[in-house]
Design goal:
By secondary structure, the chain is mainly β. It has one domain: Macroglobulin (MG2) domain (Immunoglobulin-like, Sandwich). The chain is built from one helix and nine strands. A five-stranded mixed β-sheet has the order 3-9-8-5-6, with no helix packed on it. The protein has a four-stranded antiparallel β-sheet with strand order 2-1-4-7, with no helix packed on it. The chain is globular and about 35 Å long. The relative contact order is 0.22.
Length: 142
């Protein structure tokens, strides 16, 4: 009986630990469940954007050089700063670039260009400083 009780305590501890650690960080935050359908935020990679911030020649594989990244959120950001993190993926994921950027809280679209000089696979995450992920995506540089 004591063995079963210890197993249950260990299981409860692991379940609580998993739920705490899975919500920590920019890219690990989940959104609350809503009964109303919402437009999913999108992170789009492209060769360029037009004057209306519409991505042109979108994809997930690009040659080295400048790649445009556009976040199309489901609503206004409601914050004045976002954190952009680019991770280099592969055998181990590591932070390749990170910066906080100023935005207008009324915006729901954010765009930036990034010069990828090294071949490889990358994950880009854009989040509020609170850790809430607004969008993330993966891109490969040839």
């Amino acid at each position: 009986m004591k063995k079963v009780r210890n197993s249950l305590v260990l299981f409860a501890f692991l379940l609580i630990s998993l739920s705490v650690f899975s919500s920590v960080g920019c890219n690990r935050t989940s959104s609350p469940v809503s009964s109303q359908p919402q437009r999913q935020p999108r992170l789009v990679f492209s060769e360029k954007v037009d004057e209306k911030i519409t991505p042109i020649n979108t994809g997930i594989i690009f040659n080295s050089g400048k790649v445009e990244v556009t976040l199309q959120a489901s609503s206004a950001f409601e914050v004045s700063k976002l954190q952009v993190t680019i991770y280099r993926t592969g055998t181990a994921e590591s932070v390749y670039h990170r910066e906080d950027v100023d935005v207008d809280p009324k915006w729901g679209v954010y765009h930036f260009g990034f010069n990828f000089t090294e071949k490889g696979k990358y994950r880009v995450a854009i989040c509020k400083l609170s850790g809430e992920t607004l969008g993330e995506g993966e891109v490969e540089i040839k």
